[in-house]
Write a structure and sequence with these properties.
single chain; alpha/beta; 60s Ribosomal Protein L30, Chain: A; fumarase; 3 domains; 15 helices; globular
Length: 502
């Protein structure tokens, strides 16, 4: 094989990141399509339909599956006889590929990486640096797996050290419900067993690079202990009834991946990392013949699912809204929002609460407004805004009481709210709505106008005003404090028990 050129590696990484920004792996599409056909929960089925429709739209429009275009994780298997030409280090080459991909004008991706993480947390502007893992292996090729991992799923990573005689399955079943729905199920669970603390976490992450093949494993049956664990965890996690987006249903995980490594006789390290509905990874090999060629999914790989709003959905005018109206909304009800709403997420919430504490005037009018927790992708072509799906709402829980005290009457995000936030919602008779995580491009089509109102220095975390038309949401916490993320999984767990008996 010939010399592997530096430019070929850089461009291959850049191409891979663009590719995974808008193409789901075919195995994920197949598994999610089968889950859609099986699903009996109306709310979960609607959420899956939105994810599948969004996937097709992104493939056609070459736009990101999710507004959180991820932290780049790269696994490199470097052949010891491979010859790599160039004056940059391997990590510098990868980071140049990241920079090139995320700044590509026709599909600019959202930069989410911040430096000085315990201090100023300044955005690096180009999503570098990547997290790079290098392994020296036999051969004369370079094998690279590239992934883009969103913060919502990455934040749910779990680790423990069990006693050697304790049950891994029991720990998983205890832990998954505590993770909530911020990781945007249905997705995958990656599990690493053994080694040391850092090795178990690495195994869990690397396992998520594997294709979904649970249907094949069920058909063939387990051939070893790890496959037995995969089958058992898959079945028992789905029996929890958490369902798509935590709305209750039959499918919470599409697959469970496990890698293991020998460990100390006194230890049983176990790590678990979920992969979200915006599953993004691809594998390629460089052998000196040029830039990697990545084949897009075929049209036939996309399930014949085309989401449309439910005829039963309640249409809401945000420009003429009152607490008397929101008090009539029911948990789990579908709404179609039209009118003006504000956006704000972590940094904006922190700044607003600081201004309130200091007695400073707020830069925007909040009375009777809805706030959407989102950090959108930059618009291209004729878009009002780029993909603009919801971020995890629990991160805003600590600010909720103060924000609702300004007169805000509703919030939109993804996943559940914590106990204090639910109490504040009940106290102020506000509401909390969810949009589907993993349907960011579809959601953005409901946004007709966008403008920055305040905190422009925060970039994607600035306060925008969106004008929306028929934006689909679900009532997650009512003005009376009923949370669909608490009630629906319990209901569906009981239904699933009856299904298994009958």
């Amino acid at each position: 094989m010939g010399m592997i050129k530096q430019e070929d590696l850089i461009q291959s990484v850049a191409d891979a990141l663009q590719y995974i920004s808008y193409y789901h792996p075919a195995d994920y599409l197949l598994a999610l399509g089968e889950a859609y056909q099986r699903e009996e929960s109306p709310a979960a089925k609607d959420a899956i339909a939105q994810i599948l429709t969004n996937s097709r739209m992104c493939a056609e429009g070459k736009r990101p599956l999710c507004q959180d275009t991820g932290m780049v994780v790269v696994f490199v298997k470097m052949g010891m006889q491979a010859r790599l030409e160039g004056d940059l280090t391997l990590e510098e080459m990868v980071n140049e590929g990241v920079r090139r991909a995320y700044l590509l004008p026709e599909n600019k991706l959202r930069a989410s990486m911040v430096s000085d993480p315990a201090g100023k947390r300044q955005n690096t502007k180009d999503n570098t640096p990547a997290i790079v893992h290098v392994e020296l292996v036999r051969g004369n090729k370079i094998e690279i797996s590239v992934a883009a991992k969103g913060g919502g799923s990455e934040n749910k990573a779990q680790f423990t050290v069990l006693n050697p005689n304790e049950s891994i399955v029991d720990w998983v079943l205890q832990t998954v419900p505590q993770m909530g729905a911020g990781w945007c199920p249905p997705g995958m669970l990656g599990i690493g067993i053994g080694g040391s603390a850092e090795k178990a976490m690495l195994l869990a992450k690397e396992s998520l690079m594997q294709p979904i093949d649970m249907h094949e494993l069920k058909a063939s049956g387990a051939k070893n202990r790890l496959e037995e664990l995969r089958l058992e965890i898959h079945e028992k996690v789905n029996k929890l009834g958490i369902g798509a987006q935590g709305l209750g249903g039959l499918t919470t995980v599409l697959d469970v991946k496990i890698l293991d490594y020998p460990t100390h006789a006194a230890s049983l390290p176990v790590a678990m990392i979920p992969n979200c509905a915006a599953t993004r990874h691809v594998h390629f090999v460089l052998d000196g013949s040029g830039v990697a060629k990545l084949e897009p999914p075929k049209q036939t790989d996309y399930p014949n699912v085309h989401w449309t709003p439910s005829p039963q959905a309640r249409r809401v005018n945000l420009d003429d809204i009152s607490k008397a109206e929101t008090a009539t909304w029911r948990a789990g009800e579908t709404l179609l929002l039209s009118g003006r709403l504000l956006t704000a997420r972590d940094a904006a919430h922190k700044r607003i609460t600081t201004m309130l504490q200091n007695g400073e005037p707020l830069p925007v009018y909040l009375q009777n407004r809805f706030i959407y927790y989102v950090g959108p992708v930059d618009a291209v072509r004729d878009e009002a805004v780029g993909p603009a799906g919801p971020t995890t709402a629990t991160r805003m829980d600590a600010y909720t009481d103060a924000i609702l005290g300004t007169g805000v009457i509703g919030m939109i995000g993804k996943a559940e709210r914590g106990g204090d936030a639910v109490a504040a919602i009940r106290k102020y008779q506000a509401v909390y709505l969810t949009a589907v995580g993993g349907a960011a491009y579809l959601v953005s089509k409901a946004i007709k106008k966008s403008r920055v109102l305040a905190f422009a220095d925060l970039g994607m975390e600035a306060i925008y005003e969106f004008e929306v038309q028929d934006m689909p949401v679900t009532v997650a916490v009512t003005a009376q404090g009923e949370s669909v993320h608490e009630t629906a999984p319990r209901i569906w767990a009981e239904k699933i028990k009856l299904m298994r008996v009958s």
